Amino acid sequence: MRRTVNAIRRFVWRVLHYRYFLLDFFLKTVHNSIMDAVNIDPALIKKVELFSNLRQNEIDFVINHSAALNLSKSAFLFSSGEKALQFYILTDGEIRVFNKRDDGSEEEMAHFTAGDTIGDFDFARGAEYDAYAEAARDSVLIAFPCAGLTMESLAREDPHSVCSILLNAIIMMTGRIKSTHKLILNNMSWVQELHRRAYEDPGTGLWKQILIKDEIINALNESAALIMLKPDRFKTLVDSRGHSAGDEAMIRIAIILKNITRQIGHGWAMRFKSNEVGLIINNCDAARAEEIAHELYEFIGDMDAVPPQDDIPEFNFSATISWALWPQDGADWETLFSGNYGSLLDNWKEGGDRVIHYSREAT
Fold it and tell me: What whole-number distance in Å separates Cα of residue 83 and Cα of residue 154?
């Protein structure tokens, strides 16, 4: 009886051992066949934020432990609540990420195309996915690590490479948390209100000159028009009609400036100094800058005159305008600004009522 039991035990053990041997052989064979079929461009791996600082041998380690994934249209890449054991690089196709509302409808959250990385932040945190990802059309992805592998098993194989990946993960998470925090702060209504109060002139609603140094100068590219305006005989208006008349005139001029930027679709309507105002228009060539300057000149001349009052005659508006183009008329913005401002004042003192193009060659 005992011999029979022992024989049965040996037989069962051999069967189980043989099955596990076959299973292990099968998994290794499938894994190796997938890896042999995958030709991953190292440059593609280096573009991934999580791998951006890795050395070449570490990049090779990542490639050797990544696998290709073909996803048919409407197939799920992952579902909400699943552990993020892998993340993906989309090489071809489209993946949409969405959430499901309580009423069964879907809320679209993101849309990924070739070259995008999907799920890296959840993977780095060791978190669960909080949304669903589905192929919008047939797609090809690279998955890291291969199915069945974990960071723990990879660490046993190459602890140095895994430590480098984990360090990159910490750097990535820190950067994204900071970016998210800044985005939230910048979009709070009270922050936007403080920004407006800091840079907006309360009397006219025009931007203050300080905005140029703090923000505008960094936004300029290719060419930008600097158009400055000074109302003619403004002191006469204020002395004869009072400061309220001057304030009203500046508000009317500010409306003209803001309307011009709205019509163009971009640009800044500025109050440079007391009654020196104007425009900064990005992506503007010389012909368009001159056209805008002359349009502004005509708009000021068409302003309704201040009617006569007792022995005070009617007051008609005109303006002196000096314009320049950066960097064509001066590569250094501050030098161009002061030169154009000087040109404005010089021509205003000579009687004004004109449009001038300031350039270094003309001085």
Answer: 18
